[in-house]
Write a structure and sequence with these properties.
By secondary structure, the protein is of the alpha/beta class. The protein is built from four helices and four strands, in the order ααβαβαββ. It has a domain at about 35-105: Rossmann fold. It has a four-stranded parallel beta sheet with strand order 3-2-1-4, covered by helices on one side.
Length: about 110
Amino acid sequence: MAEPVGEVGRIGCPSAVRPADDLELRRLRAERYFRGKDVLDIGTGDGRLVWVVAPIARTVLGIDPDPVGVAEATRRARRSGAHNARFKVSTGQDLGVGTERFDTAIFSWSL
């Protein structure tokens, strides 16, 4: 994997163009896709969208190739008591979810 340049590609990096996490999902009127659903967040990073979705979803699995981001997200899930949120190191090319099925997938700002 290429090394990040400056802040670009770093977990939690500021973005002048990416909207706030809750605003992004509200504008999409996305709640209907997450309420009571099993959700896959591809490119989860530090879980920025998981924290918005987890309170209404049945389960959320966040995957990301960055082990540092996944470790931080896992720690935050434990601290916050988000028992329905899980994280694993994996890529979008090889989701590594086996036979697990999801109702909705998020792929936001991951390219």
